[in-house]
Each structure stands twice: as structure tokens, then as C-alpha cells.
Amino acid sequence: MKKNSKEEFPLGLDFFSLFVHELKSPLMSLNFQLENLDSRLKEKESKAIIRKMNNDLIRLFQFVEDSLNMKELEQDFPLNLNWYTWSDFLKSIQEEMSEWISRKKIKVVNIESFPLKVHMDSKWMRIVLKNLLLNAIQHSPKNSTIQLQTKMKNNQDLFFSIKDEGAGIPENLKNKIFHRFQSTRSSGNSELKGTGLGLYLSKWIVEKHGGNIELLSSNHSGSVFGITLSKACKELLEKAS
User: Fold this and answer.
1) What pLDDT is stored for residue 100 in this prediction?
2) Which residues contact 209 (CB under 8 A, 6 or more apart)?
């Protein structure tokens, strides 16, 4: 995958990190105040306005985070690879996203043939999984199911897929979804819009792990994304080296 040129991000990583740190505090404060205001309001119209403001704030926060992550990856530093229990890793990500999952009354189903340990950089792979889950949540109807499935192939390759029950990705967008600033869906009705950087960033991270991420299928009954990490997993019962 082609990396960003330095002209695209002329500012240094130290400045960018400081910028994000200084921006986080007021954004988090505004988010907290809007949530408190939403809980006190009774009028549906006012609550809807507050909810939209809060969603826009979260989108801005995510855009800043994604931009910093892209800037860090530009430095081309080595990954910090360790063995992690995959089921625990997925559970922690679901807990982080629990507010959005519960808000849309979505059921998340985990399918894993047997417990696995995965060799990865947990910081960066967490970003990938959160982006994929957020994308699925954004475009899933209420009271639907998101299915997470994990398999080990060839005794050492990790295969992970995430399936939603949304309306699918339009045919004219399927070849563009991993491009920068490209939305995965044409509809603007999603309650929480993405930044257009999530899948682009995810592809970069997965490929840095020597893996592959792709859209496996998408139609009117839902979309399926898949990740393959070569020589990256083993059964949990096996002692990690």
C-alpha cells in the first residue's frame, strides 16, 4: 500500500501528538456536558439536536485520532509483537463499543472454533478491530446481529471476519472503500458517521503485519469483511514462546 508523502503531513509527530493531546480535553469536556444535558431534557426535538451535536463531536474526535495514527505509521517504526488471547482481545473491544451496541440494540455474536493466541501489535490491531466494528454498527439496523467469526487456517494463519445485516455497499463504491476519505456507504442516514479514514488506516496496519484485509461480500442483506494474518496464531493450550 502506498504510504503518505511527507508533503501531506508536513508537521512533525511531536507537534501532532501535542496538538491531539491539547484538543482531547475540551472535546471530552464538551462530550460529557452534552450527555448530561441530554439526560435532563424531556422534549424529543431538543434531545435529537443534542444527540446530533454529540455525534458530530465524536466524529471530530475520531478524525483527530485517525490523523494522529496515520502520522505515527508514517514514521515506519517496527511493530511491538506479542502473543495475546484473541477472545479476551475481542471482548475488550466490544466493551469499549458497548454504548453504541446497546443504543442500537445490536446483538454481537462471537464464533470461535477453539481458543487462540495471536501474534500481533495489540495497539494497532485494536484500531483495526474497532474501525471494523464501528463500521458494522454504523450501518446495522436496530435489533440486528453482528457476527464475529475466528478460524485458524493451515495450522498457523488467523482468519477473522465480521458480518453485519445492513443494506450493503453500492457497487460503484466497492473498489474504493479502502481509499482515503472514502465512505463505505452512499446513505447519509447513519446516526454516527465515519471519518473516511478508518478502512484506509486499517488496511495500512494489517499490511504492516504482513496480512490482508478485504471486502468478502456485500449485498442487500449485509456486508462481510475479512482479515488474514499469516503465521500469526496457535491454540491457546500451546505454551507461547
Assistant:
1) 82
2) 79, 120, 121, 124, 125, 229, 232
Could you report the per-residue pLDDT of 174-222, keeping only the tens digit for each? 888 998 776 665 444 455 555 577 898 999 999 999 999 999 999 999 9
Instruction: Judge contact between 133 and 164, C-beta under 8 A.
Output: no
Tell which residue, 94, 172, 167, has the closest CA to residue 126: 94
Q: CA 101 to CA 146: how far, in whole Å?
A: 10
Structure confidence at residue 179 (pLDDT): 85
Distances (CA, A) of 218 to 180, 184, 233: 20, 11, 27
Assigned C-alpha cell, 19? 496538538
- Which residues face 110 on adjacent strands? 148
Task: Indicate if the alpha-carbon torsion angle 27, 33, 39, 45 is positive or negative.
Answer: negative
The one-letter amino acid code at 188 reads G
